[in-house]
Prior knowledge:
Oligomer: single chain
Strand content: under 5%
Shape: flat
Order of helices and strands: HHH
Distance between the termini: 36 Å
Mean pLDDT: 86
Number of strands: 0
Low-confidence stretches: none
Largest sheet: none
Radius of gyration: 15 Å
Amino acid sequence: MRRALAGVLWWFDGVLGGQDYQRYVAHLRRAHPERPVPSERDYWRERHAEAERNPGARCC
């Protein structure tokens, strides 16, 4: 039962973008080491602002 719950939580985390910031930080460090790493709060703020500026990928 615990493994099933862990699997469901992992799936929801992936769907909701729970690991996106960590992947972004890894990308910045690998591909753009000279750029400063934004805080997680700043990352999400910019990501949501970008989605508002370019709503083409949304359904509504």
